[in-house]
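SAMPLE LOG
Freezer: B-3
Tube label: C17
Construct: single chain, 300 aa
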Amino acid sequence: MRAPRLSERYGADVWLKWDAANPTGSYKDRGMTVAVSKAVEEGAEAVVVASTGNTASSAAAYAARAGIRALILQPVGAVASGKVAQTRMYGATVLDVRGSFDEALAAARALAARGTHALVNSVNPYRREGQKTAVFEIVEELGAVPAAIYLPYGGGGNTTAYGQAFAELGGTPSRLIAAEARDRPHTVASAIRIAEPAHAETVAAALAATGGDVVTLEDETILAAWTDLARSEGLFCEPSSAAGLAALDVERPEPGSTVVCVITGHGLKDPAAAAARAPAPVEVDPDPDAIYGFSAGESR
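STRUCTURE (predicted):
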């Protein structure tokens, strides 16, 4: 989707890869459909993931579709309410782990090593096989390789998958700009609230291969970009999805170049964050004159 107002602001051709319209509302579905399909093919009766939210809902949905059980390990109190509700509706077993995401992932790995559950976190290579398709779509839809792709950086699985895609395409790749929160363990952008990225080494390799970079952002910068996307382009994403947009101000695109910002999840994934930041409704009487005043812009 082209972003006309952002394009004008940055003097570049800015496009948005909108992955928020996938079945569970996030880019995770690209890889999860492959990982769960392969788990079933290999005889798994259950899948397990550690998650900050989107991986959980995607794993739960595809497990339900496949008719197998899903076990979700999530850090207690660290996952957005919309994602928890979504995951529970799919019938998954949701366990609140008294610890960090990294500790939950270590437990999930240990459980999978027993042979009882298939681990479908992004350390599963089938996940990255699915996620790399976003790059193929970008290049096909634009008809060329963009100068740069900006995307959020949590665990690093998606950045790694994008790097893998460019390695397979050959030719000159897009610069990959991976946008992370400065305070990783406590960022308001809960989907990238991962202290120790599992794919740090492969992210570094992907950035080196594409001439890319890591951009570190304050929470307020991410939130400002999140709000701006909704009001300037009419697209509502979750806070972490705006990290790539926020990075445009740090790694500014070359004038006239074509760049893509990856929007990884829908805003309804984190309704509490939106309710806390958006203007509150104003109570009025059913009086047309009073209502007209607000419609003319007095409420802004």
